[in-house]
Amino acid sequence: MLMPKILICAPQHESKNYCFDVWFNNVKNFTYPKDRVEVFLADNSKTLDNYNKLTSIGITAIHVKESSRGLLQTLTDSHEACRLYAIKNEFDFMFHLETDIIPPLDVIERLLNNCKKVCSGTYDLFYGTQRRPMIQIDEPYDRNIREYRNPDFIVEEEPLFFDGKVKQVYHAGLGCVLIHKSVFKEVEFRVDERYDMHTDTWFANDCYLLNINIYADTSVQCEHLNSTWLGIKN
């Protein structure tokens, strides 16, 4: 029996080139069968230079033009390009893996083995005293007006939460998440320009409205190479 066909995908931008080689080398060493995966990146850099670099090393890519509606829409268009590529090419799962997230090499098998339609690994936001896990346990009071990286992400419960088990959550981001075709065919990636919220927040909201559960495997812990977000260098 063939293993599921997996699309490893994400938006990309030249600003993440500081860690791209680390990310790509990690992906190339994944233990999942090589003939059952493909890497697809939606590059939204200002010019075609970065797109050309990606294709020159054998990555399937598309160049997404900057949206006149702003950065959030550009990012969403990039997420959506990944989803449409997965549908068009009949992948069984999207493994949405942001290009600054470094998961364990057997991450695909471990997430697959949980038999969930949406299952995320875990990773932290920020560093030092501002560090917090990218996990939101409870649904918001008003599920359509919820700030990204809000104070309700788990902090106090963290030592008890990360026990190596698979937990149902409200929100786990799009950084390292395996999404079954029954979900990505139904749930579009979108934003609402009335609210300053990212695509992953709307994805969590839309899954909630459709009674699609999101899970986090707390045994799958990833490194997040995002120290440049705060002007911090490793």
The profile of the biggest β sheet is:
8 strands, mixed
CATH architecture label name:
Alpha-Beta Complex
Structural class, from secondary structure content? alpha/beta
The CATH class is: Alpha Beta
What is the strand content? 15-25%
Mean pLDDT: 89
Strand order of the largest sheet: 3-2-1-4-10-6-11-9
What number of domains?
1
Element-by-element helix/strand order: EHEHEHEEHEEEHEEHHEE
DSSP helix count? Answer: 7
CATH topology: Spore Coat Polysaccharide Biosynthesis Protein SpsA, Chain A
As a percent range, the share of helical residues equals 25-40%
Morphology = globular
The CATH superfamily is Spore Coat Polysaccharide Biosynthesis Protein SpsA, Chain A
- Gyration radius, rounded: 17 Å
In angstroms, what separates the terminal alpha carbons?
44 Å
Ranges with pLDDT <50 over ≥5 residues?
Answer: 145-151
Q: Keywords, please?
A:
single chain; alpha/beta; 8-stranded mixed sheet; Spore Coat Polysaccharide Biosynthesis Protein SpsA, Chain A; 12 strands; two-stranded antiparallel ribbon; 23% strand; 234 residues
How would you explain this protein's 3D organization?
The protein is α/β, with parallel strands linked by helices and 234 residues long. The protein has one domain: Spore Coat Polysaccharide Biosynthesis Protein SpsA, Chain A. The protein contains seven helices and twelve strands. β1, α1 and β2 form a beta-alpha-beta unit. The radius of gyration is 17 Å and the shape is globular.
